[in-house]
């Protein structure tokens, strides 16, 4: 079983470690560039893509604004169709439900469809503590699990691995948990996929309990929807006798018709396909067809906290396509592990603080893991304004530390700036002092910057050194605007009508 993200360091420290891994950066650059190109090609085929984005956003927003009504209707429809509904306030309650169902059927193993919700709650580790093995059946998730690794991408959890690394993982680890990899296994993608298929087949045929998530849940019919590209999900959803689906409460949509824009947006934004190869829907229990016992765990785990945030609640519109990760200049250089969560990238930088709350150094660092370039909003299929939410969350982090007994270096610097900028005499004195410093630097010292100007080197002090170590700091201008204004006599020629 893989480790968890518990105890991971704040983003700046974790990112610095990731940036030192050149192989990681190469793997990420290759994969994200490929996915971006595929997405752009299929999006360009849609004449009114922006209208489709607006329709998808409207469906999700309408569902969130009346979420309590839709959830109660969903519960009613699921129960009417033979499913057992469980409400889970947090990760512990959700994991306990799955473990109880598995024990009730004497199962010491379950097969799993790829699910962000189960990663979020640490289900695999919770089941392992109960003596129940949870086998990932998605190819990328299998790679992560066999490698004792952590997922680093919403869509492609093993994006940080290249195929040579995957071959070694299969050869080293498959035999320990089931059918071994072939002795002559190569790193060709088809050979790796075939080895995974043979390894998983015996698990599919043996398992009595399966666990899934859901991409969408329809309130009016009680229908759950899973989209995937490999067919492993279809195997999990049809072969075992018992199915447990762990679903975030934000996945509900009011009507079956509401799936239309979402099922057109998701594949284009995620895998760069016009439609997913496998779209599975199931509604409760169907006698003689598929699982004969179905449990649905409706998971909160901080979602109502996020819903209460009027600016941040738009993050709950997320359909987990990962398009924002693939265009993010920060993610493409650091990878997903640096975010310390099942949800990496721009969406993780807002989802995690919204659902967990502020106060933890690791979570508080995430809203700053962005350049605010806006690329994530441009590609989001449901128009989540991630930069807006990032700035909002940064303000919350700052507000939470306003009463600290020992203010941060940043807070002290801003207080000093406020004191100077709020008084014209202080500002004038600082301008004169900085002008003298600027003239000295231009003449005698400083560091040569692009364009021929000179700048300051790394400033002393932990905060200042970190800030100037990552960016050029131009030297102060030799003459302030007000000094230039007085020198040129512009104040004498200006008038009320100019």
UniProtKB/TrEMBL annotation:
Domain 4Fe-4S ferredoxin-type: 309-338
Gene3D superfamilies: Alpha-helical ferredoxin, NagB/RpiA/CoA transferase-like
Protein name per Swiss-Prot or TrEMBL: 4Fe-4S dicluster domain-containing protein
Region span, Disordered: 452-498
UniProt GO BP: lactate metabolic process
Protein keywords: 4Fe-4S, Electron transport, Iron, Iron-sulfur, Metal-binding, Repeat, Transport
A Gene Ontology molecular function term of the record: metal ion binding
């Amino acid at each position: 079983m893989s480790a968890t993200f518990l105890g991971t360091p704040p983003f700046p420290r974790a990112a610095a470690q990731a940036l030192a891994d050149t192989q990681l950066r190469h793997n990420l650059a290759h994969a994200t560039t490929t996915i971006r190109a595929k997405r752009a090609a299929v999006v360009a085929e849609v004449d009114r893509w922006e209208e489709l984005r607006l329709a998808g956003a409207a469906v999700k927003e309408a569902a969130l604004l009346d979420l309590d009504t839709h959830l109660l209707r969903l519960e009613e429809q699921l129960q009417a169709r033979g499913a057992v509904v469980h409400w889970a306030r947090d990760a512990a309650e959700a994991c306990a439900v799955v473990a109880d169902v598995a024990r009730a059927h004497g199962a010491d193993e379950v097969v799993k469809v790829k699910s962000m919700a189960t990663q979020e709650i640490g289900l695999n580790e919770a089941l392992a503590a109960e003596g129940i093995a949870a086998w990932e059946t998605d190819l990328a998730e299998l790679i992560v699990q066999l490698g004792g690794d952590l997922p680093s991408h919403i869509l492609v959890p093993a994006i940080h691995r290249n195929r040579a690394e995957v071959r070694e993982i299969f050869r080293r680890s498959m035999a320990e948990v089931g059918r071994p990899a072939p002795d002559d296994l190569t790193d060709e993608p088809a050979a790796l996929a075939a080895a995974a298929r043979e390894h998983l087949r015996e698990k599919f045929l043996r398992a009595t309990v399966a666990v899934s998530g859901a991409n969408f849940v329809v309130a009016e019919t009680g229908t759950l929807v899973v989209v995937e590209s490999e067919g492993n999900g279809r195997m999990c959803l049809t072969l075992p006798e018992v199915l447990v689906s762990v679903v975030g409460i934000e996945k509900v949509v009011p009507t079956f018709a509401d799936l239309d824009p979402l099922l057109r947006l998701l594949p284009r934004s995620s895998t760069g396909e016009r439609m997913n190869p496998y779209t599975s829907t199931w509604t409760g229990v169907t006698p003689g067809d598929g699982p004969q016992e179905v449990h649905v765990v409706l998971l909160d785990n901080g979602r109502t906290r996020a819903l209460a945030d009027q600016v941040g609640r738009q993050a709950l519109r997320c359909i987990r396509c990962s398009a924002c990760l693939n265009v993010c200049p920060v993610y493409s250089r650091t990878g997903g592990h640096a975010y310390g969560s099942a949800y990496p990238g721009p969406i993780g930088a807002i989802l995690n603080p919204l659902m967990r709350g502020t106060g933890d150094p690791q979570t508080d660092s995430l809203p700053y893991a962005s350049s605010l370039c806006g690329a994530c909003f441009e590609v989001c299929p449901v128009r989540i304004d991630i930069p807006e939410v990032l700035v909002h969350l940064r303000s919350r982090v700052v507000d939470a530390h306003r009463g600290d007994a020992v203010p941060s270096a940043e807070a002290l610097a801003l207080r000093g700036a406020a004191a100077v900028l709020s008084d014209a005499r202080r500002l004038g004195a600082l301008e004169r002092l900085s002008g003298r410093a600027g003239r000295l630097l231009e003449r005698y010292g400083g560091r040569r910057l692009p364009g021929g100007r000179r700048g300051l080197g790394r400033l002393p002090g932990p905060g200042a050194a970190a800030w100037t170590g990552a960016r050029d700091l131009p030297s102060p201008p030799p003459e302030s605007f007000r000094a230039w204004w007085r020198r040129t006599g512009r104040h004498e020629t200006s008038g009320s009508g100019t």
